[in-house]
Amino acid sequence: MQAADISADLSEDVNLLARFLAHTEVSLESLQTREPVDCIVICASSVLSQATQLFQALQSRPSVTRTLVLVGGIGHSTSHIYDAVARHPQYSTIHSQIMGLPEAQVLQEILNRFFSIPDIEDGGPRVLVEDESTNCGANAVRTREVLDRAGVTGIRTCIVVQDPTMSLRTKASFEKAFADLPMLQRPHFLACPIVVPEVHAVNGQLEYVLDSATDLRAEDFWEMKRLCELLVGEVTRLKDDENGYGPKGKGFIGHVDVPAEVEAAASSIRKTLGVDR
């Protein structure tokens, strides 16, 4: 099989995993038209376009939510966020100021420096900060603690914005963190990755598909091998077996169905690229 053929097959597998893991339930466009929600949570990610587009949406329609929670402490991926700020055409001007800050505080600096806080907060959301969590499960647990301390109760619907490679797992983590509440009192969580990576084969290599209608650049995403490692590793974590994070494994999340075609795509990527995370 020619290299170009392998890459074409590989791009289909990568895109299948990316769509499955992003688990888009709320699109960026629908934030402008949907019924307002009680809470929006954004977990910090090195894909800074997520924060940019969410903050722009809140600036133009602040009434979409009554509470915004910026989430993230200092963990194993925090350095990638610092690097993304350094590369960004606008945010790079605050790179020296955000070094060493928890991820949620990086988001707060971006929000305060580059967006109109009066426009957002005037009749819009109360902004809370959760800056102690160091992993996906803790994001959910600590966010609940922050909401409780702030007296935010009666949340019926909560949109969760997370890195698209772990959006599905993060939703599952939030559902588990609130699972002790009576069924009718549990928030309804909706995944909103905002940005979902898509790749195609060009001359036997994988490249990102970039929409000319947006300002996204290839450098706004992960290096291609890292993307594949993240996708394949996430499928392993989602599986409900002795190696996964489900009830039959580490018990970090509830059961998640992983379709056979998703497992097959992950296996194909492992064999083709030699990645296994």
Description:
There is one protein chain. By secondary structure, this protein is an alpha/beta fold. It folds into two domains: 71 residues, YdcF fold; 167 residues, HUPs (Rossmann fold, 3-Layer(aba) Sandwich). The protein has ten helices and seven strands. The strands form two sheets. It has a five-stranded parallel beta sheet. Strand 6 and strand 7 form a beta hairpin.
Strands in their spatial order, largest beta sheet? 3-2-1-4-5
Name the helix and strand elements from N-terminus to C-terminus, one letter apiece. Answer: HEHEHHHHEHEHEEEHH
Molecular shape? globular
Percentage beta strand: 5-15%
Fraction of residues in helix: 40-55%
Number of domains: 2
The poorly predicted ranges are none
The CATH H-level superfamily of the largest domain is HUPs
Structural class of the helix and strand makeup? alpha/beta
CATH topology of the largest domain: Rossmann fold
Oligomer: single chain
User: What characterizes the major β-sheet?
Assistant: 5 strands, parallel
What do the pLDDT scores average to?
92
What distance separates the N and C termini? Answer: 26 Å
Query: Helical stretch count?
Result: 10
